[in-house]
UniProtKB/TrEMBL annotation:
This is Phage holin family protein. The chain crosses the membrane at residues 52-77, 89-109. InterPro entries: Phage_holin_3_6 (IPR009937). It comes from the Bacteria. Keywords: Membrane, Transmembrane, Transmembrane helix.
Length: 141
């Protein structure tokens, strides 16, 4: 029996050319598998780097909010010391505290997005292990 695509003999019929055909098919399938694994790795690393850059953006946002919080809190402290007990200082403290909470929240979110575990190519690793298991089953069986 011949392969309809390229006319080469297909293994399993006991003909002398079938071993060469099987070896050629195995080599071609291995090459195709390697190409697909590399493509999967590139895609996964691209997604992981996108996540890293998102985390960096969150850290920059956190820094901006932290600077604003520091300025507002400093202004609030100055106004509080100047007026001692008036409500303008209390309002400035509330606004500064809200900015500080936002900055801390963004910093924590950015830090979690930038963790090393998000850069690990887990799908590629799982796929390579599965392919190795399937190949070993084909060779042994």
């Amino acid at each position: 029996m011949a392969d309809p695509i390229d006319g080469r003999p297909i293994g399993g019929n006991g003909s002398p050319g079938s071993i060469q055909g099987l070896l050629a098919d195995a080599l071609r399938e291995t090459t195709d598998l390697a190409r697909k694994e590399i493509a999967l790795f590139r895609t996964e690393m691209s997604n992981n780097l996108r996540s890293l850059f998102l985390g960096l953006g969150m850290m920059v946002g956190a820094a901006v909010f932290a600077v604003v919080a520091l300025l507002v809190l400093t202004d609030a402290l100055v106004k509080w010391l100047a007026t001692v007990v008036h409500s303008e200082a209390l309002a400035a403290l509330i606004v500064g505290a809200v900015f500080l909470v936002i900055g801390i929240g963004l910093a924590l979110w950015g830090r979690s997005a930038m963790s090393l575990s998000t850069l690990t190519p887990t799908r590629t690793t799982r796929q390579v292990r599965q392919d190795a298991r399937v190949l070993s089953e084909r060779v042994s069986g």
